[in-house]
Amino acid sequence: TNLVGTSNADFPTGDPGMYQLDVTLRRGQNLAARDRGGTSDPYVKFKLGGKEVFRSKTIHKNLNPVWEEKACIPIDNPREPLYIKVFDYDFGLQDDFIGSAFLDLTSLELNRQTDVTLSLKDPHYPDHDLGSILLSVLLAPREEQREVTMLMRKSWKRSSKVTSGMWSSGFFFFYKNCDVLPYMPSRTGNLWHRIYSPSNCVLMTLFFQTQSLRLSDLHRKSQLWRGIVSVTLIEGRELKAMDANGLSDPYVKFRLGHQKYKSKIVPKTLNPQWREQFDFHLYEERGGIIDITVWDKDAGKKDDFIGRCQVDLSTLSKEQTHKLEKPLEEGEGCLVLLVTLTASAAVTISDLSVNSLEDQKEREEILKRYSPMTMFHNMKDVGFLQVKVIRAEALMAADVTGKDSFSKSDPFCVVELNNDRLLTHTVYKNLNPEWNKIFTFNIKDIHSVLEVTVYDEDRDRSADFLGKVAIPLLSIQNGEQKAYVLKNKQLTGPTKGVIYLEIDVIFNAVKASIRTLMPKEQKYIEEENRLSKQLLLRNFIRMKRCVMVLINAAYYISSCFDWDSPPRSLAAFLLFLFVVWNFELYMIPLALLLLLAWNYFLIVSGKDNRQHDTVVEDMLEDEEEEDDRDDKDSEKKGFMNRLYAIQEVCVSVQNILDEVASFGERIKNTFNWTVPFLSWLAIVALSVFTVILYFIPLRYIVLVWGINKFTKKLRSPYAIDNNELLDFLSRVPSDVQVVQYHELKQDPSHSPSKRKKNNP
């Protein structure tokens, strides 16, 4: 089918990814005022098939905003209009609707840039003039799809002699599950008999399989990133004062496509020092543009806009660190950044027939890459992860259709490791889908958690959640195919269905240990903190439990002073005299070392009688119920949301309680051998500290520490500050995370029927 030309009346339907719509959002004209000051803070959303595909930046206090933002949107069905909605941003409140319009894609001429002016309308007030939006649009077939189409033509010409020319007037339609279906004109007579005759079955099967594999490659390419952009936010200089005291509380927001980050807040300064690093995935060969905005944090009211700037990645050379001083537009001052573009990590998607670890040569190369001999080469490349997503069984039915209420789902699977996120294809109308896909990732932190989530695809709205599992990399047993019981969103209890995975982890233990003492990678897909009665209560109880440990210890010491138990008090008194008389500084890490060894002995000997923590689990289940209620009412922004100042204070208290409780629980779980790798690492570190303190006087140790701290900025001006002890503890799971990562046992009475394992 020749799709290049001026014809736009007969678009083929159901061609996922066959078209690409390049949209440039130019500007708005005479938009309606929605704020008290007679102005608006407009931003634009593009929606396709009920799903948001693009959101612009917010232009503050302007009724004639200029965006000049570009979006690249894959088009599944050209007959489906693109909806444009304009809103007025209100911080902490419900955003005000300004107006909407739609763009009929079938009215566009293929491969031709078109300027479009759309008048905004409000269905409730059809006669009001709400302004207009100016766009530049270009609709074209995707290059990769065009190559496959040409390949199919060539393949068809080669096979036309065998099929007696029976396909000479056929057209091809491409579907999302990568099948190729023929559409035949009615004048072909007995053509259908010839197509499905036994002599042609083998040829047709081979042809369809070959093209299906090529189209499956396109699905993989669309989600694999081509590079990594590392951005280090160093500092701001001479920023605009936004507070009455002549200072600001600045923080920075970054955005590259759908990836977003937010820096920490530096209080009361016009020359903030951030020293934070963020990594973005780069999906386009030609680069992209990072949007950067600077804000002043104001408690209880809308944050003030300080300024903005952009980084055009297409102008930067790869494999080189660039120091950029970007002046802020619409404001004062500048930002100092370090930007590095590197080639893509080894992230792949393949079928079960292509297995890196089963190929002996490839396996040896991977093992050599992470052998002890390469411990100081590329410290960010800690290990290799391979995930086989085989199948799922007995999933929840998300769709109910037909007169007989036939229940089904259209499941697909999302595999996530930190910010690396890959998807399988969708298996339609199936509660027992088979994906048979292999995903590979580079491991940057061995303490990361692999998350596998199953969703039900829904074209009219966002995907429905079916189940999820979270698997810490250190708990994985290599090469073992396991059935994981799917959990609910909070990972606290089971939901319907199981998923079969086979996972392999290869890593360098030395690199992993060194990486443990460095800051954790920040996730750009973070849930926004919100006020929750159950969450606040849970964090308060966790905090209370940590404090009660200290109080009970104080009571125990007090009972020794009171001689409630003479033998115990006598033993404590003799121990006190011995320790004080012979005390040396090295005895502190030695005591911690003995505590770790004692708990290890209890676990190995089977004398560890600690009960499973059901208190936190019960609280998490209560919180899940509340979240379900909140989800139903998420569109209703009521009175509580308007009291933003009170809510923000409560959320801050809630988060502080969580941080303090997690800190205490992580210390406890280090000594309880919750993660053996970290406990062994603590033993090594404490042993080294004990030896150092035994042989080296304290003054020399303090001298070396002070010299290092004072000269660090001189030796490495742009080094990111960190605390090794806090970075170590951040890898130890809290009690809440222990419950979330706990693997559920499959109930034999409800287990799905066993299948015979087919040979891939």
TrEMBL record:
Ranges where the C2 domain occurs: 1-118, 209-326, 360-486
GO molecular function: calcium ion binding
InterPro entries, per the entry: C2_dom, C2_domain_sf, MCTP_C
Predominant location: membrane
Chain segments annotated as transmembrane: 570-601, 677-705
Gene3D superfamilies xrefs: C2 domain
Membrane topology (UniProt): Multi-pass membrane protein
SMART domains: C2 (SM00239)
Location of this chain's protein in the cell: Cytoplasmic vesicle, Secretory vesicle, Synaptic vesicle membrane; Endoplasmic reticulum membrane; Recycling endosome
Family membership: Belongs to the MCTP family.
Name of the protein in question: Multiple C2 and transmembrane domain-containing protein 1
Protein source organism: Ciconia maguari
Organism phylogeny: Eukaryota, Metazoa, Chordata, Craniata, Vertebrata
